[in-house]
Structures
1.
Amino acid sequence: QLQASGGGLVQAGGSLRLSCTASGFTFDDYAIGWFRQAPGKEREGVSCLSIGDGRAYYADSAKGRFTISSDNAKNTVYLQMNNLSPGDTAVYYCAAGLLQVRSDPILDRLWRLPTTYDYWGQGTLVTVSS
């Protein structure tokens, strides 16, 4: 249902673009979130894009460095990550959920919860060397 790709090894200060391609559901009805999980740490939300209305959300750690976007014709969401640091090293997952909530403050809370999502990709490893 979700295929994540684009991870790799990059030096600190470098950039990567992750891709998440969806299939098997109506893309426009869903929000696509990016999560990451570092060894020994909990999975944390990085960014989320509500496909239907274009609302985008970012974790504080991602603001100003990461950009989420989509190519709806390709059912694909991208996460452009710039100025990467070793603290960004993690397995990155994309997930899809029906976050059909009008309230911005509520949606801004819901997208961060892994339990909100129905489908998960397999994860792609991002390693940032110092």
2.
Amino acid sequence: QVQLVESGGGLVQAGGSLRLSCAASGRTFSLYRMGWFRQAPGKERELVAAIRWGGGNTAYADSVKGRFIISRDNAKNTVYLQMNSLKPEDTAVYYCNVGLAWGRGTQVTVSS
């Protein structure tokens, strides 16, 4: 069982930046691919970015390419999401995911 805890959300003006963190604990040896998802009110949950634990290969949704950066610190079992040039449409609850495990989410609100 893997436990995931997100942090770093908040309120920011358009054009600003935030960095989200996701700390994993438990059966961390099973970590392979970790992802950040988001869900805005009335919308489906969508993949924002993903990273392989070992090789660091990354993938991004088209809507965040060039603005968001996903990274990981294996020693700390933590994955980060650096979000730059934030837009009001980035407003959502952001969730960390690995396999079947999900964090509780952290709210990101971008004001115009």
3.
Amino acid sequence: ERLVESGGGLVQDGGSLKLSCAVSRNIFIRNSMGWCRQAPGKGRELVASISTSDTTYYGDSVKGRFTISRDTGANILYLQMDNLKPEDTAIYYCVRFPTTGLLTSMTLVESMTNSNDWGQGTQVTVSS
């Protein structure tokens, strides 16, 4: 069950991008999902997550600017990113979590080593 991301690119400070992640229907039923990112020289960061009951979490650095959502009919996970800043520059990964609950920290994510739980990553670059 692959996770296929799209939508990254280059955008100016203050611009917007929308990331998409195509998933199988079974994943949305069984798993919470989320987006993590990794900037050059830094560790991975949990950006946003959504539970199987549609509750959501956002990291402090993106709260009020990013929106996570999912289309259960089309089987797509989204991350709408508005008012982008240069510090948002990173590789963004779609992630499947081994739980139905809402993830709010990297504690579980850091132990996830199965490559099938991660998308291939999409580069987001915000120029100043």
4.
Amino acid sequence: QLQFVESGGDLVQPGGSLRLSCAASGFSVEPYPIGWFRQAPGQEREGVSCIDLGGSSAVYADSVRGRFTISRDNAKNTVYLQMNSLKPEDTAIYYCAARIAGRDASSWRKMPIDEFDYWGQGTQVTVSS
């Protein structure tokens, strides 16, 4: 089965940090931009960050820019999300996915969910004192 396995979620206090990992199972991440998404209770899934094939370019949602950093290690078939200065509003299940088809070469930068697949089960991040 082609999917990601997310890990690293935890309960953390506001202002704390977490590093999420996303390991591909059954396929190589190398040909795809990879995105991190999150879904809070009662909310729609939203794009958090996405990184290009080589790891040289990334985009971030306004709500996390300057606090989160995405990276990838193609040799390890893994993508990471370093989350600093966490806020209660960051509480959500975090998922990663591969951008497998797009409207154009740069559409991945808008993180349209319908262009992404190979979703994992997610990892829970809870920010609370």
